[in-house]
Specification:
Layout (H helix, E strand, L loop, with lengths): L23 H24 L4 E3 L18 E3 L20 E4 L8 H9 L9 E7 L12 H5 L9 H10 L3 E7 L5 H5 L32 H16 L4 E5 L8 H6 L10 H17 L3 E7 H5 L17 E6 H5 L2 E2 L4 E2 L5 H12 L9 E6 L5 H12 L5 E4 L1
Parallel strand pairs: 3-4, 3-12, 4-5, 5-6, 6-7, 7-8, 8-11, 11-12
Antiparallel strand pairs: 1-2, 9-10
Length: about 400
């Protein structure tokens, strides 16, 4: 068995206190001053946002045998020399959106037809468009190198066409971009995905004959920069909001973790996700767009939503929690409990919100997305009324 890759060292510095030979009164004065300054400094250090440095190691191996632990990021969990951003005390803006499906992007005509099917009287402001979906496929004419070379691009519709059609109908365009649930890019560049630390072999999420596939990892600069380039391309085309989905790790089994880098078993692994999210956020904001992160309500219930574990690390403050009625109707199993969801879509929504509401307390700017293909839009709209009882004003339907 190969030697485990060691994590990078984190260096901390301590200030030294120097005391001169002075009269007693002056000594007391200096001591009090030092204590006062030290106390203020300690408070500032305690609440400051951590620094996340994106650096490239000299001599990094970019071959297929590079392990996931050989990351291009130095993430310090203890240094915090930058003060946190000022708290925005304004009430979050209400977000009301209708989410379209991949089939609505086949052509400009199909997109216009979808706009005509939007239920009246809902006051939707945004239309969410699935530009990059789970698995890695892209449904617009991307010019990003890895998108083209991996065969991910499935459509000929352009971003400018999508933006113009949506805005002409009186709505704002929002883009759904799946991040790390992507098997396209690791298939042509294994360094973008998870590999075993002993042999450098590519990790897949199941046996090949059961449809196993690789995933991209937030520990890879190739993967993170690829999604960052997609965010840049989309936000510069005029999309008003970027919604990043699949900002998660795969559901690793114990046997998987024994083969992979030890950092994937660490409680601090969330920092790789927040670092990536902050880079995507910077790319979006640079082009005048806002950004949200969409997480699954089921993942939240299973405690598999690492990215929101520490709000101070995350520059993105807007969340969208997706309640997939189809998914939860079959039950949601955690390590200790199996939760059943029965009744109408509204009943199931209410039960899920009751279970997860406390986990969202640090994120007041949260929208609830209600989706499902086995139920009609009218049922989703009835379920939408339930979310108001739990204090959520923003919603996405579809």
């Amino acid at each position: 068995m190969g030697k485990r890759t060691q994590g990078r060292k984190i260096y901390k510095t301590k200030e030294k206190n120097y005391y001169g030979k002075t009269p007693m009164g002056k000594a007391l004065s200096v001591a009090l001053t030092v204590l006062l300054i030290g106390g203020i400094g300690f408070i500032g250090y305690s609440v400051a946002e951590p620094i996340v440095n994106y650096t490239k190691k000299k001599g990094d191996d970019t071959s297929a045998s590079t392990t996931a632990a050989a990351t291009d990021y130095i993430i310090s969990t203890e240094d915090a020399s930058v003060p946190p951003a000022e708290t925005d005390l304004r009430e979050p803006a209400v977000y009301k959106a209708a989410a379209f499906r991949v089939g609505d992007l086949i052509s400009t005509d199909s997109l216009k037809a979808a706009l005509n099917r939007i239920p009246s009287g809902q006051n939707f402001e945004y239309i969410e468009i699935p530009l990059k979906i789970s698995g890695g496929n892209i449904y617009y004419t991307s010019s990003v190198m890895y998108a083209v070379n991996s065969g991910a691009v499935q459509n000929t519709i352009s971003l400018s066409e999508v933006v113009n059609i949506i805005e002409s109908a009186g709505y704002k365009p929002a883009a759904l971009i799946s991040a790390f649930n992507d098997s396209r890019v690791p298939s042509i560049d294994p360094t973008a995905g998870y590999v075993t630390y002993a042999t450098g072999e590519q990790w897949i999420d199941n046996d090949l004959d059961a449809g196993g596939k690789p995933w991209m990892t937030p520990y890879s600069s190739t993967a993170v920069n690829y999604i960052g380039d997609i965010v840049t391309e989309v936000s510069s085309a005029g999309f008003d909001r970027i919604i990043c989905t699949d900002m998660v790790f795969p559901n690793f089994r114990r046997s998987d973790l024994e083969l992979l880098s030890e950092e994937l078993s660490s409680k601090k692994r969330f920092q790789a996700l927040t670092s990536a999210a902050n880079l995507f956020y910077d790319r979006a904001v640079a082009n005048g767009a806002s950004m949200s992160i969409e997480i699954s309500a089921s993942d939240l219930l299973r405690d598999n939503a690492d990215i929101i574990n520490e709000p101070l690390y995350l520059n993105v403050k807007s969340l969208i929690v997706k309640i997939d009625i189809d998914e939860i109707s079959g039950g949601v199993a955690t390590d200790t409990t199996v939760y059943d969801f029965n009744g109408t879509a509204a009943d199931k929504t209410a039960k899920m919100l009751e279970l997860i509401k406390n986990k969202l307390s640090a994120y007041p700017d949260t929208a609830i997305r209600l989706s499902g293909t086995s139920i009609g839009t009218d049922e989703l709209l009835k379920a939408k009324e339930v979310i108001k009882d739990y204090g959520f004003k923003s919603y996405v339907i579809g």
